[in-house]
């Protein structure tokens, strides 16, 4: 599904040039469950932003189902992001004044769905993540684990090919982390491709493949738990 070759990204900070990505190459197949690990500042978020079409590389190639994403213009990139990618973040990024249902509807507004269908699909996604009884709640009326499940439901709304999660359990306690990990595993079993940035060994251990970054480079790529 994904082929990344010799990807580079350089940030200019005053006089200093920081290579956030320094020649990263990797392939991701449909249905994989990958953890991206490595110290702070090693380039993990930069890679996720490029994979998700939130940012562009300075060099190298990014192919998604054979299409050259690095050649997309802004509109094509926005469309790619909305239709092919689901995002979830440590801080959930839900809109506080909207209900769970309305939050899940958001990506479908961009997608141009008729309101009734949008609402039905949002309800279906909230059922999928076990929040059928919380559709009318606002984020502040929900626990962290519930909010992250709303964010996951939102990420799934447009049936993405790839779910990108940046420290999705970073703000959760042990119990709710387990809940979210169980949900990820279930989604992966149903065929969703997952790439999860994490500092937590518990989260990394759940993945079938671990890719380790250091100084903008891949230093380990461990498929030892990949199914035969
Ligand atoms: P990680 O996610 O592994 O913590 P990042 O991808 O966020 O790493 O950062 C990689 C490197 O790029 C770091 O040195 C960081 O300071 C730098 N960097 C990231 N984003 C920016 C930015 N917007 N401007 C300048 N430097 C940045
Ligand atoms: P913008 O163009 O300002 O990024 P969008 O209309 O694309 O806004 O998205 C509205 C909200 O839905 C944003 O909070 C965004 O993060 C979220 N969103 C958009 N597309 C997706 C998606 N494919 N998966 C998850 N969330 C998404």
UniProtKB/TrEMBL annotation:
<keyword id="KW-0067">ATP-binding</keyword>
<feature type="domain" description="ABC transporter">
    <location>
        <begin position="2"/>
        <end position="228"/>
    </location>
</feature>
<dbReference type="InterPro" id="IPR017911">
    <property type="entry name" value="MacB-like_ATP-bd"/>
</dbReference>
<dbReference type="InterPro" id="IPR017871">
    <property type="entry name" value="ABC_transporter-like_CS"/>
</dbReference>
<protein>
    <submittedName>
        <fullName>ABC transporter ATP-binding protein</fullName>
    </submittedName>
</protein>
<dbReference type="InterPro" id="IPR027417">
    <property type="entry name" value="P-loop_NTPase"/>
</dbReference>
<dbReference type="Pfam" id="PF00005">
    <property type="entry name" value="ABC_tran"/>
</dbReference>
<dbReference type="InterPro" id="IPR015854">
    <property type="entry name" value="ABC_transpr_LolD-like"/>
</dbReference>
<dbReference type="InterPro" id="IPR003593">
    <property type="entry name" value="AAA+_ATPase"/>
</dbReference>
<keyword id="KW-0547">Nucleotide-binding</keyword>
<dbReference type="GO" id="GO:0005524">
    <property type="term" value="F:ATP binding"/>
</dbReference>
<keyword id="KW-0813">Transport</keyword>
<dbReference type="InterPro" id="IPR003439">
    <property type="entry name" value="ABC_transporter-like_ATP-bd"/>
</dbReference>
């Amino acid at each position: 599904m994904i082929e990344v070759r010799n990807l580079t990204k350089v940030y200019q900070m005053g006089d200093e040039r920081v290579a956030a990505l320094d020649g990263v190459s990797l392939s991701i197949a449909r249905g994989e469950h990958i953890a991206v690990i490595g110290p702070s500042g090693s380039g993990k978020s930069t890679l996720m932003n490029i994979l998700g079409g939130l940012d562009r590389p300075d060099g190298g190639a990014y192919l998604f189902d054979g299409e050259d994403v690095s050649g997309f213009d802004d509109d094509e990139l926005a469309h790619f992001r909305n239709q092919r990618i689901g995002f979830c973040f440590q801080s959930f990024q839900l809109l506080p004044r909207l209900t769970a249902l309305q939050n899940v509807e958001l990506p479908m507004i961009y997608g141009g769905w008729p309101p009734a269908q949008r609402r039905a699909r949002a309800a279906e996604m909230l059922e999928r993540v076990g929040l059928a009884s919380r559709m009318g709640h606002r984020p502040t009326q929900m626990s962290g684990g519930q909010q992250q499940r709303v964010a996951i439901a939102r990420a799934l709304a447009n049936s993405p090919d790839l779910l990108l999660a940046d420290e999705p359990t970073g703000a959760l306690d042990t119990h709710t982390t387990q809940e979210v990990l169980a949900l990820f595993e279930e989604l992966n079993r149903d065929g969703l491709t997952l790439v999860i940035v994490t500092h937590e060994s518990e989260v990394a251990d759940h993945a079938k493949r671990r890719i380790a970054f250091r100084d903008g480079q891949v230093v380990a790529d461990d498929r030892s738990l990949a199914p035969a």
